[in-house]
Amino acid sequence: MYIDQLIDTPVAWMSRRNTGIVISSRIRLARNVKGAAFPGWAGENESIKICTDFEKVFEQLPLFDDVSSFEMDKLSAIDKQVLLERNLISSELAQKGKGSALVVAEDQHVAAMINEEDHLRLQAVRPGLNLKSIWKSIDSVDSEIEKDIDFAFSAELGYLTACPSNVGTGLRASVMMHLLGMKLMGELDAALNGLTSIGLAVRGILGEGTKSFGSIFQVSNQSTLGVSEEEVVKTLDKLVRELVGHEQNARARLVEQKGNYLLDHVARAFAVLTHAHLLSSGESIDMLSALRLGVDVGLVKNLTVLKISEVMLVTQPGHLQKQVGRTMTEEERDYLRASVVRDKLQKVKLVK
Amino acid sequence: MYIDQLIDTPVAWMSRRNTGIVISSRIRLARNVKGAAFPGWAGENESIKICTDFEKVFEQLPLFDDVSSFEMDKLSAIDKQVLLERNLISSELAQKGKGSALVVAEDQHVAAMINEEDHLRLQAVRPGLNLKSIWKSIDSVDSEIEKDIDFAFSAELGYLTACPSNVGTGLRASVMMHLLGMKLMGELDAALNGLTSIGLAVRGILGEGTKSFGSIFQVSNQSTLGVSEEEVVKTLDKLVRELVGHEQNARARLVEQKGNYLLDHVARAFAVLTHAHLLSSGESIDMLSALRLGVDVGLVKNLTVLKISEVMLVTQPGHLQKQVGRTMTEEERDYLRASVVRDKLQKVKLVK
Question: Which of A260, A276, A277 shows the shortest C-beta gap to B277?
């Protein structure tokens, strides 16, 4: 598969099951090859060998039917940004060169970064709240790989990783959530503070260190040491279900007590998205998030949350530049983004 | 004329000539009756007598055909607010009771406040830049009145007034201007600072001490002492023409250099005005101001600046409450305002 084909394919979390409050679930495992230096310390030849070894293993795995491998030194800056925006690679991998690669299954739901911070970062993503089934599927891929490759493992600590924060399970489970109801009811900050105080990590949609847009957050576990994978997954699943309950409750009260405010919020977002001629990435996410809530509460016609996810993705800077085939200035992107959004939402209507 | 009829009548600055950058011109004269105490010091009976005397004089003036008199003690709070929003009375007059009145000609272009700060505040308003003709017309009304009433006058100082800042000519000439082009080009603050540094007063559309909305400003003279009426009018007229030139220049550069930004600004304003369900007074003026610029530069169809002025006026808090016939909360007003605006702009279209 070429990168151009990959871009024409929906990402794994885009499907009819991507509805409501939980947008997608993801689990990633960090693994390293026994006896080999971590990628940060390895020489180029050692990295290339590890990369080649992994690629061979993946080609034989049934889940990686039609596997594609993208070596970082062969990708343009725009292609890397596209992969970043699809959450298939990290910005750390994007900065690597020869010997670092992304290996991805055709439906993009399982992917592996080779020689990022660790030798292997294996991830599986699914739409909706699906942590338990994702764990089963990624655990089986991990076991398949372990038949061919010896992982660095300590009986006392568990899997060994380049950064101590991943030692143990090497597992990070995360859920992408749309929490605009709580935001509009003024209850979001307290809820997110509650999550961090019990040891979960919360970050905005555009990655670590960026301000949050669209009240879309990724909630994930922090601890990898002294807990089993099943425990981590079960705890996160339980907390996410509680959070979904809070969000549903906030939405119900929003409809009941602040109907005009909600209607105004959704209608304005629709108005801006269908009329603006310059639209920044952040504002676009904010407005699409409001429209998504509008779809969920029945204020918007001829639109699905799946379509909203698609518009959010294809209007990211990398995707826009890939479409045009060249680097663009911020104003050029804002102009194209507005035009793409107007076009994609042409048939959408407000119920009132 | 009853106040309900007055509200159904366009205000004097609303006419087909209300186009472009100068919305309206206004001149007011402050006069006091010789030998009588200023309103702030006079007793109720003395005020009532002066009020009656003036009303009789106005009834005989040809310009005040179909004159109407509104005594402050007989008006409801909402009615007073309506008159305030039409610039027919000041908030100072609105706070007065028995013995204070507004006298207004049917077309509302000449009006007089009796027993506000001075015994007589005579004003004339016209759409567009019309200071010289307004001066002629108000000067002739002033002379007519002076045939019947002796004004307090000093050969050395000129007309005597309650506040020293009006002594001399008692004349305040002002022009309401729409300066959004300079605002969007980032040149407005410098221009307004320039005006105040040469002795002009500048205030926002919603009156003294309020933040400015819609880049609509009233520019007026400060000095009344040691200058002739003709000089004041001539100087202000000249400066306003210069300012109009700057604004035209800014708009031309906006169209030429920042076309997308301008298009985006106008389209967003249109979008919000035609979709919002809660619209504050200030935001409404901001958005209508952007739409007015859109009309002026040819980006908007099926809309005149006259219609925009009408919408700005009838969506002011007093006018909305007068329409409903009762006091409303801010949210009720914002909801009704949004609905009135959507209705009034139903047929408006963007060119692109």
Answer: A260
> CA torsion, points B179, B185, B189, B195, in degrees to nearest 10?
-50
Query: Cα separation of A144 and A139, whole Å?
Result: 9
Element (H, E) at B217: strand B216-221
pLDDT at A18 exceeding the cut of 70: no
How many other CB atoms are there within 10 angstroms of residue A225's CB atom?
13
State percent of chain A over pLDDT 90.
Answer: 83
| ipTM for the predicted complex | 0.86
Dihedral pair phi/psi, residue B29, rounded to 5° = -115, 135
| Cβ within 8 Å, pair A264-B272 | no
In whole angstroms, what is the distance from residue B88 CA to residue B100 CA? Answer: 13
pLDDT at position A1: 59
DSSP for A305-325 reads HHHHHHHHHHTSHHHHHHHHT
Give the mean model confidence (pLDDT) for residues A257-265. 97
At residue A275, the pLDDT reads 98
- Chain B residues in contact with A271 (beta carbon < 8 A): 268, 271-272, 274-276
Average confidence score pLDDT of chain A: 91
The pLDDT, as a whole number, for residue A116 is: 97
pLDDT, position A208: 52
- CB contact under 8 Å between A264 and B338, yes or no, is yes
Q: For residue A264, what are the contacts with CB-CB under 8 A and spacing of at least 6?
A: B276, B277, B278, B338
How many angstroms separate the CA of residue B350 from the nearest CA in chain A? 9
Residues of chain A whose beta carbon is less than 8 angstroms from a beta carbon of chain B are: 260-261, 263-264, 267-268, 270-272, 274-278, 331, 335, 338, 350
**pLDDT reported for residue B49:** 96
Alpha-carbon distance B287 to B267, whole Å? 10
Q: Is A155 left (phi over 0), alpha (psi -120 to 50) or beta?
A: alpha
A292 CB contacts (<8 Å, ≥6 apart)? A178, A180, A305, A308
pLDDT of residue B1: 59
User: What's the CATH architecture for B3-249?
Assistant: 2-Layer Sandwich (3.30)
For residue A231, give Cα distances in angstroms to A125, A151, A236, A241, B242: 19, 22, 8, 15, 75
CATH 3.30.590.10 in chain A is located at 3-249
Beta carbons within 10 angstroms of residue B23's beta carbon: 25
Q: Which chain A residues touch B261 with a CB distance below 8 Å?
A: 278
- The closest alpha carbon to B160, from B42, B26, B33, belongs to B33
pLDDT of residue A272: 98
CA dihedral A303, A304, A308, A309 (to 10 degrees): -160
CB A247 within 8 A of CB A217: no
Name the nearest CA neighbour of B218 among B238, B235, B197, B196: B196
User: pTM here?
Assistant: 0.89
For chain B (length 352 residues), average pLDDT per consecutive 10?
A: 68 60 95 95 94 92 79 95 93 94 86 96 93 94 94 94 94 96 96 92 72 89 89 95 95 96 98 98 96 95 93 95 96 98 97 84
